[in-house]
């Protein structure tokens, strides 16, 4: 018998060993192949070894046909495409909608998500919701995109409140109570909006009297009679500028530019605190406990120090920027995913600085300075703003743009072929698109300057307003005999 024969037993052991080795080689080879496939490697009979990337592609507001590098891809969005590494051109098309195109590069093993494309109708249906006898003095939309408030005329105390979700209904008319205002020789001066509270109910207004004296008014959208003159309620001084703290309607920062002081102010307690920081030239707050500010204290003659103050006691130093002769600084900060992004610059400098998580790289109350990770070169920058999702920072000077992508770490530099005054700011439509008014027309374009679309007419002095689902676009337009129409444009057919 074989198991009693030493030679046969030895041969059987050798065969088993060889089998195990071959099996191990096959498993290792299969694993290697799977790993390389996962990293995008493949084999083409003509090209040899190739490497691919993965693209997830979607479109709004409708599903669209996909053309890849001039050939129909045989698929519609929402799609998962395996693409050879290199540069590609995608075109999305749908019946009755304008094409959307993008040229992009993908590396082998990359996974890209292009879920933001938006297609606009070829012919946008328009309607006039109402006709106003004169142009409003100003308009302002609530953060949730639900309410639009506008002053009926510059010399009127009447405010109109439109429900964006029900634009066909007549707006509610509210009167700013005389008790919340001040007057000089019977004149109320001008009123303009400052910012909304996060309750989407309260709007901070600034009243400027003919003498230049100022009053801050907290307008209550639901009950105008409950509006409050905060300047009087808190006995603010004439040089104190007010802003909301943490976007709450009862907490404020009172800033004196002449003294460089920031104080806390509260409607609940009726108190204004002693200054918790001094030497401030300009600042930007975030949440309840972060103040990002510019100061000349301890700075070189041609520089401006940047400091982040947390919990009103911990100071973190950022690398200084050039000093601006007009004391104008573009400071901003936001959190994208888990990363804090700070921006700093001035119109007199051709550089905007980007600091990523600067507070994690320096100690509180030390002299160590956090360095910027990105420098955005642009001449005479006037505006710096974050997209709705905080992923992009747009720095603008007229038609010149530089946009920083916090996710990919990329910079996009471009010039829009539109008439845009240097004092005119393009506004973020959403997380990936900007809108701007050029020669009485509203244009929308992607963060990188591509896919610019001529949408509707609109008066230059007013923004374009969208509902939260981007079904409609609203603008003010000129009508015959000096009247103004509130126009609605349908973006989903």
- Binned strand content: over 45%
Radius of gyration: 30 Å
Q: Tell me about the largest β-sheet.
A: 5 strands, mixed
Q: How many helix segments?
A: 2
What would the principal axes of the Cα set say about the shape?
globular
Q: What are the low-pLDDT stretches, counting only 5+ consecutive residues below 50? A: 32-40, 45-49
Strand element count: 41
Span between N and C termini?
85 Å
Secondary-structure class:
mainly beta
Q: Average pLDDT across residues?
A: 92
Helix share of residues?
under 10%
Largest beta sheet: strand ordering: 22-23-24-25-29
Describe the structure.
Helices cover 8% and strands 46% of the residues. By secondary structure, it is mostly beta strands. The chain is built from 2 helices and 41 strands. It has a 5-stranded mixed beta sheet, with no helix packed on it. The model is unreliable at 32-40 and 45-49 (pLDDT under 50). The longest helix has 33 residues, at 6-38. The relative contact order is 0.09.
